[in-house]
Amino acid sequence: MKNYQKFAAVYDSIMDDSLYDQWTDFSLRHFPKKKKAKLLELACGTGIQSIRFKQTGFDVTGLDLSQDMLDLAAKRAKTVHVDIPFVQGNMLDLSSVGTFDYVTCYSDSICYMEDEVEVGDVFKQVYDHLNEGGIFIFDVHSTYQTDEVFPGYSYHENAEDFAMVWDTYEDEAPHSVVHELTFFIQDEDGRFTRYDEIHEERTYDLLTYDILLEQAGFKNVKVYADFEDKEPRDTSRRWFFVCEK
């Protein structure tokens, strides 16, 4: 467990902290003003965004596939004295979590779904667990990001107690990429342990997302880009969808 905690700490340290501020600000601009609204954060990871939402005044539940990540999230919430239920679960089946006023799924987590059928299934699950008039906000990589920016991307980081190599390649399916991550993390005895991870991500064109959201039942869908309240351009890297039930 100690190694995993270090591993997740490495994840958190390479994540640009300002993104959480931007996700929070974007959400607050697009959620209706409602006191004590119930919010479900999908793919909540180590809980940083869930805590931001809780501190803003929402009644937050966090859901993630990884129990290890959730253990860290619970520990983090306890440290800052906030009470958030963190639920281990799959966003393809939300039957255990009840209903919410708002649902978010940030950090391109939808792009980890295997195909558009799964993406559509997530949208339907979210729709079914939103209260009437509820809002679902998520972001995904643009096709420009997967096709032009990511292939050939390489990032290396060296710190005292860890090193990381991150390479991204084009994958076989349209608009899909593979991230190969290698971490070297220092143990208590000073030795470095190697961890390898492969992350496969896939996105779709705007029309596909629109159709899948409509099929799920969403009636009012707005699309923005790169944390701003502006329409996507050809070179936008991250698309944001604000969907109303």
UniProtKB/TrEMBL annotation:
The keyword Methyltransferase applies. Its EC number is 2.1.1.-, 2.1.1.156. It comes from the Bacteria. InterPro entries: Methyltransf_25 (IPR041698), SAM-dependent_MTases_sf (IPR029063). Keywords: Methyltransferase, Transferase. GO terms for biological process: methylation. Residues 40-134 form the Methyltransferase domain. The keyword Methyltransferase applies. GO terms for molecular function: methyltransferase activity. This is SAM dependent methyltransferase. It comes from Streptococcus ferus.
